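Extended Data, panel c. Modelled sequence:
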Amino acid sequence: MNTKLTELLGIKYPVLQGAMAWVSEANLAAAVSNAGGAGIIATGGRTTEWTREEIRKAKQLTDKPFGVNVMLMAPNRDEIVAVICEEKVAFATLGAGNPVVYFDQLHAAGVKVIPVVPSVKLAKRVEAAGADAIVIEGLEAGGHIGTLSTMALLTNVIPEVNLPVVAAGGIVDGRGIAAALLMGADGVQMGSRFLLTEECGLHPNAKARIIQAVDTDSVATGVSRGHGVRGLKNAFTDKFLALEASGAPQAELDQLATGTSRLAAVEGDVENGLVQVGQSLIPLREIRPVREVLETVMTEARRLLTQAPEIVKR
């Protein structure tokens, strides 16, 4: 399948693996790249030294393109960007801050720049500044979210820009991929679907909790404060949302939330930690190898796209 994204990155399938805190490491990223997509190493909460080690590990595991995500609120973001440039990573995704200030540095090192943007205004801004592509991520996604849905972003952004657009948020199967491509996207980013893979290091307790989840188990904390984070309902989210609704100071909420992502993903405490996953939960029912996941969703997407012209003949 050829799109602007596959041509830009030199990959087989127009699929990026989302950068998920504490679980998007070299092993998962390399597996996705080897299977035909483009894996991404997540650096949020990680040290600069860890980032360099994971990049080098990924290079040993794959000769295919992979990327690194820069969480722009991180205090070591400048150092992370420097490592990406020094290690000549294929591309970088950047979110949760102003990515434009890093464009020249990354491009000078031969690194393609793919910012994550939540609106038309920012999409136009990064396009004018020289972004190679953009990710538009809807509020259906797991983890940090914006205020617009994936459908609304596809509707609003795609007609307004000319660079490749990657759709993200709630896409876990071939149906979602086909829908995004028909809307005019050049590819998709999937995070939640790759949580339930053999190569993903997410704690078994968290994987089991995702498999058990029903469609209404998704909840977003912090939305009223402008910092929404999506995950599964549990004791932590109940407490957080009660405090949020009561008007508790932001500092108290921040203290409660600090470390909860790692607590669930690494330590396996799925009641006091936050299992970050998107809203499309029902299809997430089994743990499979990355290659099998990619081949399955792409087969389904191709089938649906091939059948699409028949609709207009009816």
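The longest strand covers residues 112-117. This feature is highlighted in the accompanying rendering.
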